[in-house]
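#struct-pred

JT: dropping the chains for the assembly here, can someone run the whole complex?
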Amino acid sequence: MIQTPKAELITVTIDGREVAVPKGTNMIETALKVGVDVPHYCYHPKLSVVGNCRMCLVEMGQGAVDPATKAPIMDPATGKQRVNWSPRPAIACATSASPGLYIRTTSALVKDCREGVMEFLLINHPLDCPICDQAGECKLQEQATDYGRGYSRYIEPKNVKPKHTSLGSRVMLDDERCILCSRCIRFCKEVARDDVLGFIDRGSHSTLTCYPGKKLENNYSLNTVDICPVGALTSTDFRFKMRVWFLKQTDSIDAESSAGANTIVWSREGVIYRITPRQNDAVNDTWMADSGRVLYKAVRAENRLTEIRIGRAGGKAGGSGVDAAIHAAAEVFKRNPGAVAIVGSGRSSVEEQFLARKLGEALNAPAWLVSRLGKGDGILVSADRNPNVRGAIVTGLVSSLPGQNLAELAAAIDAGRVKAVVCLGEDLTEAGLTDAQLAKISIVYLGTHRNATSDAADVLLPTLSVFEKGGTFVNQQFRIQKFSPAVPGPAGATNDLAVMNRLIEAVGIRRSQTGDLAGVWSEISAAVRALAGVSYANIPDMGLSLDAALWAALPFVEGESLHHKPVK
Amino acid sequence: MPEQRRIIFQHIGEPGYSNDLACYLRNGGYETLRQAVKRKPGELVEEVKLSGLRGRGGAGFSCGLKWSLVDRKSGKPIYLIANADESEPGTFKDRCIIHQDPHQILEGMMITCFANNVKQAYIYIRGEFPDGARILEKAIAEARAANFIGPDIAGSGYGCEVYVHRGAGAYICGEETGMIESLEGKRPYPRIKPPYYPAVLGLYQCPTIVNNVETLCHVKHIAAMGGGAYSRIGTPGNTGTRVYCVSGHVQRPGCYEFEVGKITVGQLLSDVCGGPPPGRKFKAVIPGGSSAKILKFGERFKGKRKVGVALEEYDWALEDVPLDFDSLALVGSMGGSGGVIVMDDSVDMVEALGNINAFYAHESCGQCTPCREGSIWMKRITERMVRGGARPEDGALLKNIADQIAGRTICAFGEACAWPTQSFVQKFGDEFGAGASAKAGVLPAGKIRLI
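RK: done, full complex below.
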């Protein structure tokens, strides 16, 4: 686990309650520790502090001391130290905790400040809520209700600004709704390292815009939509699609790379509408890449596999039930004793990889992984585009990192040493095998989408996507993280774990369990040393760091990124 | 009637006095700098502290204290910025100095730089002063050629460079941290304080001194006559002279320099400036630039004030109020930038406030909420009132909006835009009540609508 250096603890008093916090903690975070919500718009815990919205104004004071003796002056009425309150309110976001600081968040002055700021923010804000995508998760709505006056004194004409400006292909701006908090500007500069946003014009006519000749096209642009406290920035993919209060939230993991950003999948009635980041300060803070947010589209893709097939595509089908398919697979294994290989996947879950290892052991079959490399962006997309290569290593499915292609397997096929392949969702042709080599072997294919290998498969079992099943991935930090099913799989798809469990049984190994997560984990925790004592249920939502010392010598491809420094 | 004491304006307006180096040298120019660089820098800082000089830009903050707050231990370079962004409506003293006596500024700057070990100084001049910028650039070139600026100033081995930076026409650039942002090439959004006090984290996050043009000129004279002698000019706590820029309804508007506190409002407006136009009466005066609170003729101010160590009763009519920082603060306004705006009885106060509000709404940088939205709201209300749509409740609403701004913003612009409204409504409440709408729309012949 990454340890933050222990800062000196100091005591401050918030609304009469004492709380100890590390020195320098700002007042908003300090107040949160005692459950006091200090409303704010511009402040974001992961961005620099600018103090422009003025919503977090609080009263601040210091304990009174006798100037001569430095002894605290007590108030005889309360028996407590008297407080010298500053006549001016201070912004909680930029005020750090210092010893003996007093804060008041419930006084008449603070109430008046909040009412004033709310009123100012609303006078030029359009009454768009009924058609605004942010409605339901809008800070302005919530805080207007909680801290506003409830009526308007404004009778002048409102500002008129552009209602739909495209900042980039994925982000749309409604300038009238913008409260000029500058979160998006700071995000682009500080996190995405793509300084393209800024304000033009002055005063109430200030307008968010891209710099001349620039576009908001970086792969993190949609985070600006997430952190926009109002409905000014909306996602072109999500806008006008669904009211947020109808959506169910499911914890998941971004499967696009080994960075393993924590995510929330938002769905309704079996349909996914959007994916947003889930805060994990050890992995992705509050961010995720745009590229990870569109992965849900694969769930309902045209080429999704939904039918069990026995016999090659276009050929004669030999029954379509799971039992028949398992039987057919068992026949393939029987026909090719000692000549079966397993092509596992860095996209499979830890549990699937563990069962793949078990199947390999039962068949005495060697296993390979398909590598999937790209360029790391140094933020949250790593060079290893497989989310779970480390899972395959930890579970013992493979002992080395996947090579560029499946040259060894190709050679074994050419030499006739491998005559059948169990392929877990990978396209062997993309991994370097030729059509001729595919034609030479029998293929048992478990996967979600159609490709040249699934077409060539002798037994095809459609399985579930990451959004339709539970499981775990081990990310680049050797952090094991859970994902949960957000939507049910399509009709015809089978559960990966159950099917693999049955394949192992089909080889003649008696199985003590039926292939549900708990059952597989009871096996894993017994068989895998690095995961001893771990069960699916006791992995925290924020993941669990594994001891990576065993694998420190492996030449992992990931470079430095947010919260990850490769071991040299 | 007190006589003018022209120190800063000694040569300004003098026939035959030109803004070139030769003329400045003929009049004893740069002699103070030559002597100053032979002294210890710390001595000069002490002289300025002793002088009691207060900033002439608006806040009246002690110049010596400002210098002593500069972080000299960090090892970072220290910068000086001369604030020549004279934008406060009603103020035009710095422009006169820039145009007619630029070398006086440069000499004051170089003494300030030497005293504070500054190697790099900037003059931030507002974009609307293109002539002033050219004059300063020419003066810098002359001074550099004569070794008053550059690597070896007056043969002392001490080196310092000065550059002119032209603003792009924003009032907020006169706010020191906004100015620093602008100088760094960014939007002039004022910084939050804490932590960004210029004395510690100023230009390029280095310690920085920002002084008004007139203040820097005073430094030259303090170095010349000594802090003790300077502190005997003016009144205790309000030392030296100050330039009053009188505009509006007086017979002889212009810049007048007096010892601070030794002239009253009445003396300045009636005796010096010749009183109101014929047939008119004074109605109100804004004593320190448009953001200062307005004072109404006929008001009386009573109370006790400190004179030295003793408490002294005072009972002033507006005419009796001495024009110094403390007295003006005592009567609820401020000395500010020295821009004295005079209004006679022909002025519609709603319209006058509407004009000021339009200015502040136009100039609000838009960074923080209360000022950004409050300024435009107040502008829209006064505009509506002027055009005949006044409601009885508008006065109270205006006052309440202003109260929601002052003290709650990042920079002092919040106060600057709130104070006019607060004071206009308080003092001329009758014009902001139901009566406002009846008057609207009726313009005397030949009069131009201000908004």
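JT: nice. Residues 369-389 of chain B form the longest helix (21 residues). Chain B touches chain A at residues 170, 187, 189, 192, 194-195, 361-370, 372-377, 380-381, 384, 397, 404-405, 407-410 (CB under 8 Å).
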